[in-house]
């Protein structure tokens, strides 16, 4: 791949038992983007499912690590090295507790905010200056443990609009690729 390719990674846990979990919002967005790119994920030796294609005319590698969330860094680093993608063109789509459900935030760099997938990626890359599309899942109710909360499926009320929110997050990824961070923030932070 040449230097103009982007690597877009969705975070989640593999297997059907996790498919509807809040922690798998990244996978949901990547599945939708794969449909838009008109392709299918294929196994890659970097321990990820990968699709090479185009979104809005931009060359992309869409990827879903096949490891558990807390080991996402190995596959991301392997893909970055394999496709020779600079960290500036790495986008990670993930669930975010500190943002209410129905809101999106885009940023470059920053801490991991207790997110095991981000912590693993930052550690493996030795760099935190990648782009993030943060899919709001909100805080757990009452005293529920955050780790337990993200491993639960979206609520019935959330599921009624989940498809719309995943669609909006996919739009945000495409906007980021075509127009840059600031323009995407201006569009998607309003919601």
From TrEMBL:
<comment type="function">
    <text>Catalyzes the release of premature peptidyl moieties from peptidyl-tRNA molecules trapped in stalled 50S ribosomal subunits, and thus maintains levels of free tRNAs and 50S ribosomes.</text>
</comment>
<dbReference type="Pfam" id="PF01195">
    <property type="entry name" value="Pept_tRNA_hydro"/>
</dbReference>
<dbReference type="GO" id="GO:0072344">
    <property type="term" value="P:rescue of stalled ribosome"/>
</dbReference>
<feature type="binding site">
    <location>
        <position position="68"/>
    </location>
    <ligand>
        <name>tRNA</name>
    </ligand>
</feature>
<feature type="site" description="Stabilizes the basic form of H active site to accept a proton">
    <location>
        <position position="95"/>
    </location>
</feature>
<dbReference type="GO" id="GO:0000049">
    <property type="term" value="F:tRNA binding"/>
</dbReference>
<keyword id="KW-0820">tRNA-binding</keyword>
<dbReference type="GO" id="GO:0006515">
    <property type="term" value="P:protein quality control for misfolded or incompletely synthesized proteins"/>
</dbReference>
<protein>
    <recommendedName>
        <fullName>Peptidyl-tRNA hydrolase</fullName>
        <ecNumber>3.1.1.29</ecNumber>
    </recommendedName>
</protein>
<dbReference type="InterPro" id="IPR018171">
    <property type="entry name" value="Pept_tRNA_hydro_CS"/>
</dbReference>
<feature type="binding site">
    <location>
        <position position="70"/>
    </location>
    <ligand>
        <name>tRNA</name>
    </ligand>
</feature>
<feature type="binding site">
    <location>
        <position position="18"/>
    </location>
    <ligand>
        <name>tRNA</name>
    </ligand>
</feature>
<comment type="function">
    <text>Hydrolyzes ribosome-free peptidyl-tRNAs (with 1 or more amino acids incorporated), which drop off the ribosome during protein synthesis, or as a result of ribosome stalling.</text>
</comment>
<dbReference type="InterPro" id="IPR036416">
    <property type="entry name" value="Pept_tRNA_hydro_sf"/>
</dbReference>
<feature type="site" description="Discriminates between blocked and unblocked aminoacyl-tRNA">
    <location>
        <position position="13"/>
    </location>
</feature>
<keyword id="KW-0963">Cytoplasm</keyword>
<feature type="binding site">
    <location>
        <position position="116"/>
    </location>
    <ligand>
        <name>tRNA</name>
    </ligand>
</feature>
<keyword id="KW-0694">RNA-binding</keyword>
<dbReference type="GO" id="GO:0004045">
    <property type="term" value="F:peptidyl-tRNA hydrolase activity"/>
</dbReference>
<comment type="similarity">
    <text>Belongs to the PTH family.</text>
</comment>
<dbReference type="GO" id="GO:0005737">
    <property type="term" value="C:cytoplasm"/>
</dbReference>
<comment type="subunit">
    <text>Monomer.</text>
</comment>
<feature type="active site" description="Proton acceptor">
    <location>
        <position position="23"/>
    </location>
</feature>
<dbReference type="InterPro" id="IPR001328">
    <property type="entry name" value="Pept_tRNA_hydro"/>
</dbReference>
<keyword id="KW-0378">Hydrolase</keyword>
């Amino acid at each position: 791949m040449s230097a103009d390719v982007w690597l877009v990674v969705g975070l989640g846990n593999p297997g059907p038992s996790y498919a509807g979990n809040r922690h798998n919002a990244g996978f949901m967005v990547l599945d939708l983007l794969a449909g838009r790119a008109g392709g299918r994920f294929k196994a890659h030796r970097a321990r990820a499912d990968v699709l090479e294609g185009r979104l809005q005319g931009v060359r992309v590698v869409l990827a879903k690590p096949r490891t558990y969330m807390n080991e996402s860094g190995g596959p991301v680093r392997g893909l970055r090295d394999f496709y020779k993608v600079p960290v500036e063109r790495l986008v990670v789509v993930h669930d975010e507790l500190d943002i209410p459900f129905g809101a999106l935030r885009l940023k470059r760099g920053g801490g991991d905010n207790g997110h095991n997938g981000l912590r693993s990626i930052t550690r493996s890359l030795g760099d935190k200056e990648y782009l993030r599309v943060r899919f709001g899942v909100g805080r757990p109710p009452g005293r529920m443990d955050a780790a337990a909360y993200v491993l639960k499926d979206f609520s019935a009320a959330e599921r009624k609009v989940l498809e719309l929110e995943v669609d909006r997050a996919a739009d945000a990824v495409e906007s980021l690729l075509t127009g840059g961070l600031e323009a995407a923030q201006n569009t998607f932070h309003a919601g």
